[in-house]
Amino acid sequence: MYCYSKFTLAPSATIGGGTVGGGVYELLTRRISSPLACIKKICVRDLQKTRDFTVDPTCTLTDSLDDVLNDETLNCIVEVMGGTGIAKDVVLRALSSGKHVVTANKALIAEHLGEIQKAIGEAEGSPSFAYEAAVCGAIPIINTLQSCYSGDNITSVMGICNGTTNFMLCKMEDGADYGEVLKEAQDLGFAEADPTADVEGHDVRAKISILAKLAYGVTVPITSIPTTGISSITSVDFEYAKSMNCTIKLIGTAARTSEHGEHDGPLTVYVAPKMVPTSHVMGGVGGAGNAVAVTSANMGLAAYTGPGAGRYPTANSIVADVMRIANGNQGPAFPKTASLKLSTDYESSFYIRISISDGLGIIKSVGACAESSGVSISQILQNAINDREAVDFCVTTEIALLSQVKMFVEELKKLSFVKKEVMFMPIMEE
Amino acid sequence: MYCYSKFTLAPSATIGGGTVGGGVYELLTRRISSPLACIKKICVRDLQKTRDFTVDPTCTLTDSLDDVLNDETLNCIVEVMGGTGIAKDVVLRALSSGKHVVTANKALIAEHLGEIQKAIGEAEGSPSFAYEAAVCGAIPIINTLQSCYSGDNITSVMGICNGTTNFMLCKMEDGADYGEVLKEAQDLGFAEADPTADVEGHDVRAKISILAKLAYGVTVPITSIPTTGISSITSVDFEYAKSMNCTIKLIGTAARTSEHGEHDGPLTVYVAPKMVPTSHVMGGVGGAGNAVAVTSANMGLAAYTGPGAGRYPTANSIVADVMRIANGNQGPAFPKTASLKLSTDYESSFYIRISISDGLGIIKSVGACAESSGVSISQILQNAINDREAVDFCVTTEIALLSQVKMFVEELKKLSFVKKEVMFMPIMEE
Ligand SMILES: NC(=O)c1ccc[n+]([C@@H]2O[C@H](COP(=O)([O-])OP(=O)(O)OC[C@H]3O[C@@H](n4cnc5c(N)ncnc54)[C@H](OP(=O)(O)O)[C@@H]3O)[C@@H](O)[C@H]2O)c1
Ligand SMILES: NC(=O)c1ccc[n+]([C@@H]2O[C@H](COP(=O)([O-])OP(=O)(O)OC[C@H]3O[C@@H](n4cnc5c(N)ncnc54)[C@H](OP(=O)(O)O)[C@@H]3O)[C@@H](O)[C@H]2O)c1
Fold first, then answer.
1. Domain ranges across chain A
2. CB contact residues (below 8 A), chain B span 77-96, against chain A
3. Of A2, A244, B41, B290, which sits 20 to 30 A from B351 (CA to CA)?
């Protein structure tokens, strides 16, 4: 077992020599070349594959995990292979043999947080577990939440933390349609061949569960996080967004609801596209950019923006983690532990888009549905009508619970003139 | 001499019990109440003054600096008295007796960096010196620059780091005039009775010198930093800004110039109002908000925004520093040391506003002045002319050196039809 001490020499190995692993090797070797941190071994799947970076003779390329994990001269393992199967074994084995672990693997952390925490242990000699790169690539949000809010009470954390979907939504705002822009994202290498994890919000879900753990000390099982992706958003929604001075962003949210006072209620964690005011810092995040907005008692709103992925942004965060470990300044991985009631019934004002065949008495019926669901309507907007048989309009609500809005939508669907799916999404406050 | 070890108990004292000091005491006592960090003494100037926070019986209020500095049971001093005289002695005495120091005092750090560094020392048992609150209140930019860019090359750091002037510029953008808005800022308690430090950019200068030290490892004497404030900006500049899709912000900049390649030249550090595209994250910073944008090789553009001052935002950063020290995770105060050539001749594209009596051949003469100064003109804009004797227009340039633009301006002033002061400012890139 390695003993944690300040200014440890940190001979390291990466498991993975792909996009991120290659970047980590390059930065540590070419840019830092500190005796405190050097990569001694790189483990890959296929030794024959041509690498897009040069491996120095002082570093061994291997395809044997055991060759790395059983090497007692290594005290820091950088896991950049991805996945939640073998990667999990790698991380748990490394930690339980006292090696520090640095990883970019959000899926692994989100799915196996409890086991990872157990493997880290709590004693003073415990190895470090660092994962700045796992959420929002280059944005130092993990470190910031770990150490800058120790005397604060966080009321909400909201993240645009998937570059692919942000890229797609920006293009859709400019008029492109969903299928078209998905193909473009795939051609550009942003989106995977199977884009489900991105467009259905699963990637954001993993990330917001990690941010929720840091902000509130609560482990939220990812399967309990209500998650809506971007696939049902259409150009009509962007038209309404525009008339509301908003844009649409896929947002992971972790927020305290207000029960008896302000933000004293259960914690709600969810993923959904949101109407975001263009004047809000989150509304200005373009392309594949990422951003996290944290609202707290002491600080009000603070926002951190930057690139969310890519070889060097991601490797940069890993290298910063490795150097903090080498310098003995890496704090505990999950400094907060708390028990907070969880609720899936989040509160927000909402946007609801309704397709109808135009007629008389519609507003009155919609109003009645709202009333019986306990929802207060704030605004009703209707864009220019081209075809009286396929009209849409949108309703915005005052702050309401998700359950109330769902009931409202169910009531709406019973109305004879309401057509197709009713689409709704929360609206972010200014 | 205290020996630095992980998880030190940190009995602390604050020197100062005003806006920030009171906030620090409240947060550490009411919100954290960790055995690791508690305030045992608060030193103030006037013991008779009524405090706006309650001091527990476990804490002593004193007006004797010696009572605090000679107390060997205290190992962390929070300097929140301000000023660069007594405060300097306090900080140096505390450090040289091995006490950790936390401060919010940007003026002190900027003016006496060398002496402070000497007092900290470099040995492993050296005390910590933490100053997150000194630049941009609640935004964790000090920590981020200290530990998140270790494997990166920073090309520029730009900060909106004075809330008062940002508030004033936002109001001026909405049509208010300089004198009017200065009075409003004073009435609201943003601006001091003597607003010089804010409006002439001295406060920003202190802060950008600290950010430059962190980003580049170079100590830049504040007297060598070209500094322009906001007092010569008029509503006309905001009109031109609008037609350029820009706004005007007071920006502290530290950037590498490009000599032989990209960003390989001398370091330039300066303070000036800038034309900032409204689409840039810095263009969206409203009210008394602060923001720092860092551009680097690995990360591209990352930006950090939040409140820049006020009791709790500032105290929050101090408390985070104290807790990092108590937990043994505070890294070195100034991790980078480098020698880089400095230059006051910064490069940028520029906006130049010229007042003239209208006539013929003006553009041709202006073009000749530009050519002889080596400046390429990019655009010429003229707002509606009301009075032919008092016409203004603006010229924007391609990337040029400050010295070239100054020469251009001197040439312009020689022209018979050019009136009054010629006003110029850099334009921030998209
Ligand atoms: N790419 C990004 O921008 C980004 C951003 C943030 C986080 N991440 C995370 O970083 C991790 C790595 O991503 P990546 O883009 O670098 O992936 P990648 O390019 O596919 O690289 C994966 C690497 O792991 C190696 N590997 C896979 N299975 C292995 C096994 N069983 N034994 C040994 N080596 C194995 C592969 O070896 P071969 O090269 O021989 O196939 C490859 O070198 C993932 O968790 C991802 O979520 C990536
Ligand atoms: N206020 C902000 O928003 C803010 C933001 C960022 C940084 N800062 C920095 O924080 C520092 C403090 O600012 P502040 O706003 O808290 O100032 P403040 O409200 O004027 O408080 C200063 C405190 O220091 C005490 N003091 C002054 N001289 C003293 C002496 N010779 N011996 C003992 N105590 C002395 C004063 O005692 P009495 O109360 O008895 O007069 C007072 O409690 C400054 O360096 C400032 O630049 C402030």
1. 3-134, 141-307, 347-427
2. none
3. B290
In the reported structure, the alpha carbon of residue A160 is separated from the centroid of ligand 1 by a whole-number distance in angstroms of 23
Which of B314, B316, B319, B321 has most ligand 2 atoms within 8 Å of its beta carbon, as the pocket-test mutant?
A: B314
Question: CATH homologous superfamily of domain A347-427?
Answer: ACT domain (3.30.70.260)
**Which CATH code of 3.40.50.720, 3.40.50.2300, 3.40.640.10, 3.30.70.890 fits the domain covering A3-134?**
3.40.50.720
Give the type of residue at A182.
L
Which pLDDT score, from 0 to 100, does residue A385 have?
76
- With contact defined as beta carbons under 8 Å apart, do B220 and B342 qualify? yes
Q: Compute the distance between CA of residue A334 and CA of residue B66 in angstroms, rounded to an integer.
A: 40
The complex scores an ipTM of 0.93
Query: What does pLDDT average to over chain B?
Result: 93
Sequence-distant (6+) residues with CB within 8 A of B244 are B275, B351, B381, B396, B427
Residue with the bigger pLDDT between A11 and B198: it is B198
**pLDDT for position A390:** 76
Cα–Cα distance for residue pair B100/B120, rounded to 1 Å? 9
Contact B302 A305 (CB under 8 A): yes
Q: Which tokens is A199 given? A: 């467009």
HEC-encoded secondary structure of B188-241: CCCCCCCCHHHHCCHHHHHHHHHHHHHHHCCCCCHHHCCECCCCCCCHHHHHHH
pLDDT band at A5 (very low <50, low <70, confident <90, very high): very low
Tell me the average pLDDT across A382-388. 78
Asked if the C-beta of B308 comes within 8 angstroms of chain A's C-beta atoms, the answer is no
CATH of span A141-307: 3.30.360.10
Report residue B31's pLDDT band, with 50, 70 and 90 as the boundaries.
confident
- In tens, the pLDDT along B325-375 reads 998 899 999 999 999 999 999 999 999 999 988 777 888 999 999 999 999
